[in-house]
Amino acid sequence: MDDPLTTTARAARGHAYAPYSKFAVGAALESDDGRVFVGVNVENASYGLTNCAERVAVGAAVAAVARRFRRLVIVTDAVPAAAPCGACRQVLAEFGAGLMVESVGPKDARRWVLKDLLPDRFGPEALA
Ligand code: THU
User: What is this structure's pTM?
Assistant: First the structure.
């Protein structure tokens, strides 16, 4: 039985645009004020222009003036449940390394604190 954020990520996954990889990803990102922003992967015929679901969710959140986040859930069909890619880890870490990241697949679920996925991140403090 999914928790509500997972339900949202799973529903979003149905809207993924992944005609090349066929690997659909749905993301749901909860801000500290309880709002939820979704993302899906958006692929492109020029493959390198693909956007991951996590980064699309971050973009939706920032555009709605949310910058502080509690939890991210991604849903895929991977076994074991897929960890976020390195580029997404860096983009998520821009907004804090304490984010709880959960990945749900058909066989298992995994969770991490972002700082364990990306130790010693390069963050905004370096530029202050
Ligand atoms: N993908 C994501 O959306 N998030 C990740 O963290 C890893 C990969 C997408 C990109 C591409 O559309 C497909 O999954 C296969 O790499």
Answer: 0.97
100 CA to centre of own chain:
11
Which ligand 1 atom lies nearest to the CA of residue 53? 3
Please, are residues 58 and 91 in contact by the beta-carbon 8 Å criterion? Answer: yes
pLDDT digits (tens, 9 = 90+) for 67-93: 999 999 999 999 999 999 999 999 999
Ligand 1 pocket, Cβ-based, cut-off 6 angstroms: 18, 21, 23, 25, 41, 43, 50, 52-54, 84-85, 88
What single string gives the DSSP state of each residue in 69-100? EEEEEEE-S-SSPPPPPHHHHHHHHTT-TT-E
The letter for the amino acid at 65 is V
Give per-residue pLDDT as tens, 7-52.
999 999 999 999 999 999 999 999 999 999 999 999 999 999 999 9
